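# step 3/5: fold
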Amino acid sequence: MGKKSISHTPLVGREFIVVYCMITTLFALWGFANDITNPMVSAFKSILLVSNFESSLVQFAFYGGYCLMAVPAAILVTKTSYKLGILFGLGIYSIGCFLFVPAADMQEFKLFLLAYFVMTCGLSFLETSANPYILSLGHPASATRRLNLAQAFNPAGSLFGMLVAQHAILAKLSRSTDEERAALRMTEPEKFSSLVGRDLGVLVTPYVALGIVVFLVFAIFFFKDVPNQSEGMRHSLSVRQTLQRLIANRSYLEGVVAQAFYVGVQIMCWTFVIQYAEEELGMSKADAQGYNIVAMSIFVCSRFVCTCLLKFVSPGRLLFYLAMGGGVLILGVVLLQGMLGLYCLIGVSGCMSLMFPTIYGIALSGLGEDSKLGAAGLILAIGGGSFLPPLQGANVDLNLSAPLSSIRLSFLLSFLCFVVIAIYGYRTFLRSALAGLTDS
């Protein structure tokens, strides 16, 4: 009876279809930003001749913005409206994109890190506003499916970002090796500076175009009426009391932890595909990015399949199975050589597709108006993508020899992440099963 009622619940309230479609476009916008940026870790390493750890600071800066702005964004949305949160997000996002221009002119890596940080301060506002808003646009029974469908357009934007990174950036960078660039820096610094300027110009152009697009979307939302759910309740909210309730909610806290490990493993798998293909198989960056695009295509298809499966399988159970599958594939990355290891790394994306929106929906389930501030903790958890990739980069820099190279061993960190997610999925499934027994 329960499964039947869930499967027949309307996905979106009829009066919210237009606004649902508008908000869904934002998922593609931040997906584009995420996945045009992942390959830039490898690009900056070669352009500026920095270490794996230093180049991974791109992810530290990119996802650090989520950590800083998650709570302020949630407070703004709680006290005002979803629309204002979205406008703040789009405005800051576009400013961050335009900061790439002075960073390239000065050839200063720290300024690029600042630009990424500002971008994701804006993305934090967007995600803190859009995710709980999507959950509110219909019946609570279909909330997780509704968010999964909206999130399905996130990897579509990600896939486009990957294609732009491959063809508009990586394929157009100088073909010189790191050794040749290092020698040029020592012997002819002016030519090296000119080469760096040329490559940075290639890198910056798509980000400037992105800034223009984001500003246009800002203008559309500015002039469009966006209804705010729970309008009459927001002024009576107490941030302190809400935080106390959230801290006392074990399912919510476990969801925040699981989300941090999920985002970390996602970013590590997609960031270090290029380094894996380069070091284990001798591929070029552009060719390696092609396999990243295949991984994202699998991710997109799996998202739609898993969204359908949620009609018949509980979110916790499906999350547990997929986390187990991801862990097995990661062991294949570590233990198998050559193309088999690369295929395992690509296949992990099929297991990850469901995880972010499902963890999000489970953690916010039943929170009501507390979900506005509760969303901040789940966006704060995106900080897992800030700390874990640099840690993996530091492990890659160890340069261990065969039979298990540093790049392969570094993925043991991803295995640990899947273990944490599997535990959360299993505990969620048990809680749901116990609740069903109690109701019966």
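# step 4/5: annotate
Residues 89 and 265 are 25 Å apart (CA to CA).
# step 5/5: archive (pending)
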